[in-house]
Specification:
eight-stranded mixed β-sheet, alpha+beta, about 450 residues, four-stranded antiparallel β-sheet, about 40% helix
């Protein structure tokens, strides 16, 4: 069994193009060239929209493995659109009337010039670029759909958000804090007694929430490529499919992680931070994470459909990594952070105090000390203020952005009452291009 696990880790290491963002080991130009060379063997994303044959579906279901997840190959791209077919899943339930969205389409947005790692091109050209492999994009302004296009999926398909779903966990923690169930100043050991080491006793809930925990599970290529490192082992077990070995739970792996730097000093992004927040949610509510999220958020918004979380072979919900929904429901979630929240919900879910806390720049000095903060500054060609409540970027004007692996994104602009959400399946996660969202906001909506 250990040999099988070693093989699985090797597959992950050799297949991994980069982590959450493009690694500093490769320049943007080199990444683009590698994407052009490798993705030439992939089917165009339009195939998944226009119809996959029954024979192809059977092949993808049989072929899907953790390596497909890592590379975003043809089977991987299919799996991203059909999560329950390739992984065990938990359900996030909807309820009540669907919040119908008015449409006021603005095709002028297609002419917006964008500057990205994929090159300088119009937004319309970016959408159809074979390198970005964008599946769908949605822009909502003043509560109305201003732009919506599906290049590689059907409107009713549910695509994986990947790490963009961390914003769900961040909001849920805030709601439970307001209810008096979570104290951000308490240490992790207070809520999870099994995490009893001296190191874990130094880590507070707020450190997890803002990715400044200091624990040695930071998502970098170096950690992924180090045999036996808790990040490499944890991901190997977590994304193993039904046909692959998984001997240890993420809980067991994370319990033994050590500090590599004092908490609060450096913005070091890690899905493990979010996973532990999910465990805390379950401990304080005595409910499974999926039901808490359904009760507190998903059933309170006029969503079209249920959402789905991937469940590890050990039965743990991947609350900060693999969540799937329709694009419009992702957009409805984004609207909760704008003045148009009442278009999709009867009661305000994102309270005013959420923004007061999310905009607090307590950890701004930590932002550029980590790899991802520097990368985000490059992608947007400006330095965000800080990261907060699981958002990768909080800008000085109040806009917030969260990335997801393979090019997913959610960008909310409360001041301009705008939401931009999108799905992609970039080969090996080698290319990131989120800057277009902020460029659209500035050109079309900022006053």
């Amino acid at each position: 069994m250990k040999n099988k696990l070693s093989l699985l880790i090797v597959i992950i290491i050799t297949s991994l193009g980069c982590t959450q963002n493009t690694t500093q080991e490769q320049s943007s130009t080199e990444n683009v060239k590698q994407v052009e060379k490798s993705s030439s063997e992939l089917l165009p994303v339009s195939v998944y929209k226009n119809g996959v044959t029954a024979k192809q579906v059977q092949e993808y279901r049989n072929e899907y493995r953790s390596s497909s997840f890592i590379t975003a190959d043809n089977a991987g791209a299919y799996g991203f659109l059909n999560l329950p077919e390739v992984a065990n899943t938990g359900t996030i339930y909807r309820d009540g009337q669907v919040a119908m969205l008015e449409e006021e389409i603005n095709l002028d947005i297609l002419n917006t010039m964008t500057q990205t790692d994929a090159g300088n091109k119009t937004f319309g050209e970016l959408l159809n670029d074979n390198q970005t492999r964008m599946q769908g994009v949605l822009i909502i302004h003043d509560g109305k759909v201003e732009f919506e296009k599906y290049m590689g999926m059907r409107r009713l398909d549910k695509h994986v958000w990947f790490s963009a779903s961390k914003t769900l966990t961040g909001l849920l923690v805030h709601i439970l804090e307001e209810e008096g169930l979570i104290d951000l100043t308490k240490n992790v050991s207070h809520y999870i007694p099994e995490f009893s080491s001296e190191d874990w006793q130094k880590v507070k809930v707020e450190h997890l929430l803002h990715h400044v925990s200091g624990m040695d599970y930071v998502e970098t290529n170096k950690n992924f490529k180090t045999p036996g490192h808790p990040l490499a082992v944890g991901f190997a077990y977590a994304i193993a499919t039904r046909s692959e070995p998984s001997e240890k739970s993420l809980f067991e792996i994370m319990k033994d992680v050590k500090l590599y730097i004092e908490p609060g000093i450096q913005f070091d992004y890690s899905t493990m931070n979010t996973q532990i927040l999910g465990i805390i949610v379950e401990r304080v509510t005595n409910m499974k994470f999926e039901d808490v999220l359904s009760d507190k958020i998903w059933t309170k918004v006029g969503m079209e459909s249920e959402g789905h979380y991937a469940i590890t072979p050990q039965g743990e919900v991947l609350n900060g990594a693999i969540f799937a929904s329709r694009l419009r429901d992702m957009g409805r979630f984004g609207m909760l952070f704008t003045p148009s929240w009442n278009k999709v919900a009867e009661k305000q879910i994102v309270s005013d105090s959420y923004f007061t806390k999310a905009y607090n720049n307590k950890y701004s000095d930590a932002y550029l000390k980590g790899e991802q903060g520097s990368n985000n500054a490059k992608y947007f060609n400006e330095i965000p203020s800080h990261a907060s409540y699981q958002w990768d970027c909080v800008f000085n004007d109040g806009d917030m952005y969260k990335a997801g692996r393979y090019g997913q994104g959610i960008y909310v602009s409360p001041e301009t009452n705008t939401v931009i959400v999108w799905f992609s399946s970039v080969y090996e996660n080698l290319l990131y291009f989120p800057g277009f969202s902020r460029q659209i906001i500035k050109e079309h909506y900022s006053k």
